[in-house]
């Protein structure tokens, strides 16, 4: 990764951010005598030599939009969020959050142990989460106490956890830990992914804490989905209701992002996208697959 690389570090007790060289953090991590509790959760290393030694699980690679729909010849680099190294010392704590853009997560504990507190992304819980996020003192309130059910899960050394779309979670580190993980967007829960994105907009989450190129990636995903739907319709294949709901949500989002004044639009539409043609084809193929699946709006 490079010892001189500057990384983002969280001071857990102060709940504040600081930046330091990786070599300085390693020195801190290796010293059992510590005056601070520091936590690293955002070191993405896809462009480093370490990348060759860490491979996401097959299912994550197979589903990941950034891997599968981002054009190789597109001038902007694809979002690199598939490979993170998380380093936390004992008593590190990450408060309740939803991973950016509602992305799913793979999370492998290479060393140590993690305790997750998990809340299902029901409509009621998501409404409570937004209310909690908008409180100026929300870090003083344990979100798990606001909901009907908060699950505790211990992830031990050598175990891998998958966090589905939208699950609200906090993470406690009971012993010094080293974790590898990554994020990915996919076809299986587009409706909820977009709902989480809208929560981020409503809560005014800083751009640097959002999924990079989120809207651009959805335009490219829509191109691929049109191809997939066309193939399914040619065979008269049925489609799961959740996938159809996701396509409806995707079509609505893309349409809204074509409106300049829409506050949710934060990225330019890729020049290669023929917007009217794409939206028309997506709508047409959606109607056909709804008919084949005996589903309608």
UniProtKB/TrEMBL annotation:
UniProt entry tagged with the keyword 4Fe-4S: no
Give the domain of life.
Eukaryota
Does Cell inner membrane appear among the keywords? no
UniProt keywords, alphabetically? Chromatin regulator, Dioxygenase, Iron, Metal-binding, Nucleus, Oxidoreductase, Transcription, Transcription regulation
Q: SUPFAM superfamilies, alphabetically? A: Clavaminate synthase-like
Compartments reported by the entry: Nucleus
Q: Residue limits of the JmjC domain?
A: 45-201
Mind listing the GO molecular function terms for this protein? dioxygenase activity; histone demethylase activity; metal ion binding; transcription coregulator activity
Its Gene Ontology biological processes? chromatin remodeling; regulation of transcription by RNA polymerase II
PROSITE patterns, per the entry: JMJC (PS51184)
* One Gene Ontology term, aspect cellular component: nucleus
Name listed for the protein in its UniProt record: JmjC domain-containing protein
Q: Which organism is it from?
A: Daphnia pulex (Water flea)
């Amino acid at each position: 990764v490079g010892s001189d690389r500057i990384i983002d570090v969280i001071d857990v007790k102060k709940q504040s951010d600081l930046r330091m060289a990786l070599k300085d953090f390693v020195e801190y991590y290796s010293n059992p005598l510590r005056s601070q509790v520091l936590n690293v959760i955002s070191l993405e290393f896809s462009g480093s030599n370490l990348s060759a030694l860490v491979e996401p699980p097959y299912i994550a690679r197979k589903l990941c939009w950034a891997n599968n729909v981002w054009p190789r010849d597109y001038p902007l680099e694809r979002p690199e969020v598939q490979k993170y190294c998380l380093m936390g010392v004992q008593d590190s704590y990450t408060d309740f959050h939803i991973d950016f853009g509602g992305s799913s997560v793979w999370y492998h504990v290479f060393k140590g142990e993690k305790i997750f507190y998990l809340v299902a992304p029901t409509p009621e819980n998501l409404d409570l989460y937004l209310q909690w996020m908008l409180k100026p003192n929300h870090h003083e309130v344990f979100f798990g106490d606001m909901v009907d059910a908060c699950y505790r899960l211990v992830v031990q050394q050598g175990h891998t956890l998958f966090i589905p779309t939208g699950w609200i979670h906090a993470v406690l580190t009971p012993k010094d830990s080293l974790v590898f993980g990554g994020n990915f967007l996919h076809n299986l829960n587009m409706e909820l992914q977009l709902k989480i994105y809208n929560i981020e907009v409503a809560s005014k989450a800083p751009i640097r804490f959002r999924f990079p190129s989120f809207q651009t990636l959805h335009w490219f995903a829509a191109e691929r989905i049109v191809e997939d739907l066309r193939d399914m319709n040619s065979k008269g294949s049925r489609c799961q209701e959740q996938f159809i709901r996701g396509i409806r949500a995707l079509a609505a989002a893309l349409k809204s992002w074509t409106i300049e004044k829409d506050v949710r639009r934060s990225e330019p539409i890729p020049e290669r996208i023929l917007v009217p043609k794409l939206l028309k084809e997506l709508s047409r193929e959606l109607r056909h697959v709804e008919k084949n699946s005996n589903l309608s709006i």
